[in-house]
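Q: Focus on the chain.
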Amino acid sequence: MMTYIRFLKNENGFVTYEYGKNKDEMIGTVTVNISNKENCKFFFYKSSKIQKFCTSTSHAIAMIYKFINQNSFPKEYVYAC
């Protein structure tokens, strides 16, 4: 399984990435508070075939937590497992 993650913004203490199966099949966005990672929100695009929490959602959240811990926010990232 592969999850594609693309950076959208880092502002007001929150970082936002969009994620999907690949560049052309984006599922939605994940926004995480940098100072309190428990404050995490995800949104599914209406055009997405997936409208529920899935493996790609959990992978995206886990990778964003890792990015915050490393204080490094890549523009694009591919997670394969």
Notes: The first helix runs from residue 55 to 70. The beta strands are 2-11, 14-20, 26-33, 40-44, 76-80. The helical segments are 55-70.
